Amino acid sequence: MHPYQDPSLPVDARVEDLLARMTLEEKAGQLFHTMLTMNADGTPVTEADGENPEPTTPQLVQDLKLTHFNLLGSYGAREMALWHNAVQEMAASTRLGIPVSLSTDPRHSFTDNIGASFNAGAFSAWPEALGLAAIGDPELVFRFADTVRREYLSVGFRTALHPQIDLATEPRWSRQSGTFGSDAKLTGELVQAYVRGLQGPELGPNSVAAMVKHFPGGGPQKDGEDPHFPHGKEQVYPGGMRDHHLEPFKAAIAAGCSQMMPYYGQPVGTDWEEVGFGFNKGVITGLLREELGFTGIVCTDWGLLTDAPIFGETHEARAWGVEHLSVAERAAKALDAGADQFGGEECPEVIVELVSAGRIPEARIDASVRRLLRRSSSSASSTSAGTSTPTRPPRRSAAPTSPPRAPPPSAARSPCSPTAPPSPDALGCTWRTSTRRSPRRTASPPPPPPTPTSRSSGSAPRTKSARTSSSRSSTPAASPSPRRNWTASSPSSRPSPRSSA
Predict the structure, then answer these.
(1) CATH number of the CATH domain containing 142
(2) DSSP label at 93?
(3) How far is 342 from 335, CA to CA, in rounded Å?
(4) Count of alpha carbons within 13 angstroms of residue 158, beta-carbon side
């Protein structure tokens, strides 16, 4: 056993041991967070065909050495757990056995917009974010996020590509339904409850990491346009309200969110450089890290480096303000800005090229890989008390809640042993997601009631309980995905699936 495989050692010691053993190619693979699909029966996509072109899952995991993936499509819970275990066993066969970390867009409401969210399907059904905001109860949002946490863990998801805490100040903007509305104070209260419900007081083995988006606030798009497209790339702050849009993100950082996603938008008419936020050093390093003190992972929004056909139509990379740069130069600028990971991309050879050419020092790559490994190791190895039952947020006045729901079957940890098939979680211990069909277990007792707090308005919110549905037993068919419309090509033009994340 190598030191990085010993869960009894401190996290930092294990991370440093693993980092020292990694090749440049293995480090580069860590810097990409792309999409995967699966077969409806729970098996990985191992052969390319008309619906599932290259790269296949084995090519991504074993050849390109990627370990972070966003699952596309809706499937049965048991099938997702089977798939998770199969992909982890595939990862265990690589040289270092670095496990895969799986993420997902929201899956607990009614909107089915591929690349942004999926309808509830096999998961419990709750109101959209705007509905939760209309109820206005942080305690309810905490219970929602805690349910999401338990259900995600039961199928293998370790990162939530949400919550979305942009302020919906532009009524024409198309992403309002994923937000908590335009009230900065309320959004700040709800995101703190959301993050604590997903992560607990700190990341641990029972946590789901929250990737909060879209920093520094995606609501004020010029004319309400969508920055997924060139005509909507400009972001403005009418009335000098830039700091207003930052308030929810300050609250999320105070709650301990572990990851942050900058938006596509290109700020205009400000003192920031007029390039997309994923390339913007003044925003990522100057504002997010230095001024606000964020120490977690920064993952770009999806598709900043390469062009990609989506549903048969070619979409250019969302490299707003740096469209003239090559793929390698765009990647270098994002790394210089302070980004750790590239969402929706799968071209680690570009990073190898940048380091080999002396454009980016390997020490800079190490800094991001260290963050990524530490996050994974903390989730797998922490034994801190309280992570299995996250701390509840303060309850807003006069907002009763319904009785707690029973959790779904949770991920079962198996001991590291030669007899257990290796489905590894971070840095050497094994995880297998249980696929047994078993009766639901009763929820663990809640912690003592929180101390009530009130908002400055002094008025009680409307009192509604979330309508959930845990009795669904059908297995929905897999939904189509953008990945099925592209073919592999050179790094400068390789199409890559794109999420609206």
Answers:
(1) 3.20.20.300
(2) T
(3) 9
(4) 25
- Between CA 374 and CA 427 the distance in angstroms is 9
Any catalytic annotation for residue 146?
no
Length of the chain measured in residues:
501
Task: State mean pLDDT over 437-443.
Answer: 43
Domain membership flag for residue 498: no
Alpha helices, DSSP H only, in 22-65?
24-30, 57-58
Q: What is the pLDDT of residues 276-290, one digit of tens each?
A: 999 999 999 999 999
Output the pLDDT for position 377.
77
Lowest mean pLDDT among 108-122, 282-296, 417-431: 417-431
Average pLDDT over residues 46-53: 79
pLDDT value for 446: 42
In sign, the C-alpha dihedral spanning 137, 139, 145, 150 is negative
Q: Buried (b) or exposed (e) across 38-72, using 16+ Cβ within 10 A?
A: bbbebebbeeeeeebbebbbbbbbeebbbbbbbbb
Pairing verdict, β 308-310 and 313-315? antiparallel
Please compute the mean of the pLDDT values over residues 441-464 and round it to a whole number.
Answer: 38
Q: Is residue 497 part of a domain?
A: no
| 168 pLDDT more than 90 | yes
Close Cβ partners of 64 (under 8 Å, ≥ 6 residues apart): 29, 32, 55, 346, 348
Beta bridge partners, 159, equal 103, 209
Whether 122 is in a domain gets the answer: yes
Q: Which of 105, 137, 183, 301 is catalytic?
A: 301
Percentage of the chain modeled with pLDDT above 90: 67
The answer to whether residue 501 is domain-embedded is no
Q: Give me the number of domains the chain comprises.
A: 1
pLDDT tens per residue, range 23-46: 999 999 999 999 999 999 999 999
Task: List Cα–Cα distances, 155 to 145, 152, 170, 380, 435, in angstroms.
Answer: 16, 6, 37, 15, 8
How many CB atoms are located within 10 Å of the residue 291 CB? 11
Query: How many Å apart are CA 89 and CA 20, to the nearest integer?
Result: 23
* Strand-strand pairing, 68-71 and 101-104: parallel
Domain region containing 372 = 3-481
Residue 371 near residue 340, CB atoms below 8 Å: yes
Q: How far apart are the first and last CA of the chain?
A: 39
